[in-house]
Design brief:
2 domains, globular, three-stranded mixed sheet, 3 helices, SH3 type barrels, GMP Synthetase, Chain A, domain 3, 183 residues, six-stranded antiparallel sheet, alpha+beta
Length: 183
């Protein structure tokens, strides 16, 4: 992806995008020109010709002329389920405006695994957003759900967006604060 970042790309086909930060849907058309500003966690943040910042999901990578590479998990036999795997997956969910994952941003308030009778696990997540009016909450929530659900041993994922306590920059990891020049 690195060679496409910050270069103009003509869309190869129509695709859906999500306007940042409102979360509204937008249809982009074949032939529209966009510039990729961020490509993390499988999704793409692009600037449209009209100056809108939008997110294109990984399933539409081909519209950008980019080959999507699906994530592969180790088979259950090779790597037994652990909460560490859940955290690792959550670290592949990125804020579309800030190039930092939801774990390092401090958006994950609760991450618990509960064993189920069928041998699987129900994952309970409570997460927040950097601002109460953020329209990207449902997008990030569904990214997290899809990635955690793909783990071997996970049979249920329950995610709740919470606002208490309010998020602030002190929740960010030291690495995230360094990356943003806050330390």
């Amino acid at each position: 992806m690195g060679s496409n970042q910050h270069t103009q790309i003509e869309l190869k086909r129509d695709c859906e995008a999500t306007i940042i930060p409102s979360g509204e849907k937008l249809k982009l058309s074949k032939g529209d020109c966009v510039m990729v500003t961020q490509a993390l966690g499988g999704s793409f943040t692009v600037m449209t010709g009209e100056g809108r910042l939008v997110r294109i999901a990984s399933l539409d990578a081909d519209a950008l002329g980019i080959e999507s590479t699906p994530e592969k998990d180790a088979p259950a036999e090779a790597r037994p389920f652990s909460l560490e795997q859940v955290i690792e997956k959550l670290m592949t969910v990125f804020d579309p405006e800030i190039p930092i994952n939801v774990v390092d941003l401090g958006l994950i308030y609760v991450c618990e695994a509960h064993p189920l009778a069928n041998g699987g696990h129900r994952i309970e997540l409570k997460m927040s957003m950097t601002a109460p009016g953020c329209g990207m909450g449902d997008v990030l929530k569904e990214d997290a759900r899809a990635k955690v659900s793909a783990l071997a041993g996970v049979t249920e994922v329950d995610i709740e967006i919470v606002w208490e306590p309010p998020w602030d920059k002190t929740r960010m990891s030291e690495a995230a604060q360094l990356q943003l020049g806050m330390l």
